[in-house]
């Protein structure tokens, strides 16, 4: 006479004494892989902001853009692509000239591109927040510095740097909603 016994291992968390509100609770208690969260924060930083009065440094609140914000940013980028293309062309030219010490533009670095950066900023903001990237409102200063660092100091690919300019416009858009 053969008897069979089956043992089932319950998923972690289901055996907990407290009542579960669903499997989501199990996964929430397991925590998020630090490496994954680090990569997530780098890629989607525009959708996270530090949690105010947080007990820990690494706590964030999601910032979900509204449909209006997404439309505004897309429309502004479409209308101002001419200037952004100009920045890209200027940057390429200045990089090419950087190796030629005999060229008079060699000593200027990326300064010739500043007028295009400022024109792009004016176009994206409808000239409502100053005429230069230096005039950016306080809420977007960090993003402006990140853009300049990415584009003209670290020399990352232009598409990598675009997110910083987009974040300037996102911050300004959100600021404008507060003042309405």
Explain the overall architecture:
The protein is mainly alpha-helical and 180 residues long. Helix content is 52%, strand content 3%. It has seven helices and two strands. Strands 1-2 form a two-stranded antiparallel sheet. It is globular. It starts with 22 loop residues before the first helix and ends with a helix. The relative contact order is 0.09.
Oligomerization category of the chains in this entry: single chain
Query: Termini, distance in Å?
Result: 81 Å
Task: Assess the beta-strand content as a share of residues.
Answer: under 5%
Indicate the mean pLDDT.
75
Largest sheet: 2 strands, antiparallel
Please give the order of strands in the largest beta sheet: 1-2
Query: Outline, from the CA principal axes?
Result: globular
Poorly predicted runs: 13-17, 19-31
Rg on CA atoms, Å:
24 Å
Number of β-strand runs:
2
Structural class per helix/strand content? mainly alpha
H/E topology pattern? HHEEHHHHH
So how many helices? 7
- Roughly what percent helix? 40-55%
What attributes characterize this protein structure?
single chain, 180 residues, mainly alpha, two-stranded antiparallel sheet
Task: Summarize the SSE layout with pairings.
Layout: H1 23-30, H2 34-43, E1 48-50, E2 60-62, H3 67-79, H4 81-98, H5 114-124, H6 141-153, H7 158-178
Antiparallel strand pairs: 1-2
């Amino acid at each position: 006479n053969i008897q069979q016994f089956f043992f089932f291992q319950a998923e972690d968390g289901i055996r907990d004494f407290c009542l579960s509100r669903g499997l989501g609770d199990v996964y929430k208690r397991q925590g998020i892989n630090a490496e994954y969260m680090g990569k997530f924060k780098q890629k989607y930083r525009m959708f996270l902001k530090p949690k105010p009065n947080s007990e820990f440094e690494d706590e964030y609140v999601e910032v979900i853009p509204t449909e209006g914000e997404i439309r505004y940013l897309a429309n502004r980028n479409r209308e101002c692509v001419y200037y952004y293309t100009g920045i890209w062309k200027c940057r390429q030219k200045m990089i090419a000239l950087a190796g030629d010490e005999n060229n008079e533009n060699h000593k200027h670095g990326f300064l010739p591109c500043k007028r295009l950066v400022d024109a792009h900023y004016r176009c994206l903001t409808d000239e409502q927040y100053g005429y230069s990237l230096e005039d950016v409102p306080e809420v977007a200063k960090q993003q402006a510095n990140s853009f300049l660092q990415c584009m003209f100091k670290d020399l990352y690919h232009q598409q990598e740097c675009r997110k910083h300019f987009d974040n300037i416009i996102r911050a300004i858009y959100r600021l404008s909603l507060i003042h309405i």
